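Here is one chain, start to finish.
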Amino acid sequence: MPQPVTMSDVARAAGVSVTTVSYVLSGKRPVAPHTRRAVEKAVADLGFTLNTVARNLRTGRSTIVALVVPDLANPFYAQLARGLQESLRGPGYHLVVGSSLAQRDEERAFLEEAVEQRMAGVVITPFRIGPDDLGPLADAGIPVVVSADVRFGDVDHVAPDSAAAFRDALAHITAAGRRRVGMIAGPRDVTGGDPRLDVLRAEAGRFGLTLADPYVVPGEHTREAGAAAFEALMGLPKPPDAVFCVNDVTAVGALEKAEELGVDVPGDVALTGHDDIEFASLVRPRLSTVRYPAIEVGRSCARLLLSRLDGRSAARTVRVATTWVPRASA
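Its structure:
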């Protein structure tokens, strides 16, 4: 019966120490890129895998991390999961993903399961729960990283830095002579309000623009909600000539409704999404959007979680830069 591959085998094949192999696999210390590549090649060539069962028995610690997102149908969250999983795999953690369907009861159920299963950590994009709902996780010693636009209690936090990107988009739009700005926003009862609307309003003020209440239509983060909101905006006595959307999914719904209504995009109305998911560049007209790199969001969440699992105590916030991506729709 063949003997299992060990870290010592990997170290010999890569020409490094066992300690260096451990650093590469755990991510606890920086390693030179060429050394990392040598270790990763040895791991792949030898078929080395961490014996997580033995490690769990030895340390009494789970290797399961839960990712809870509002909607797996949104490609943004699939990319976030990819970045998170890639970063957790080396240190020996395994990812499970759940969709809360943007429902408070589902979000709470996933958190309860994390406590029951004594998971290593939780990464969550909260939609309708509040900071107090994370209390049982803190009591159980389970670290949490929140991926959200606004601060969510005293936990690690990854958020977009969107102000400059919105400013660039508004400069582009106003240079084309557009003055009536509207937004297809998120639901009014979402956790933390609608920070993307708040940022857009603040930046619009720099250009002498306002977003009057009739020009802001709330709804779920879905194509159907985007289509319904766009129809409502186009039904106003003076429809907006520029519309921002809370995400790309709602923007695609708006594009579909524009075609149905005979509204020319961008001739009659400029349309801008948020996130830059893959199909933003595939729809026609190609969608102008604010790029929020989902894979980097996932990696940032992983770095915070691994640091917390390594003993750091103070909560941190990481801001991920966004950029305005002008395409054909605006």
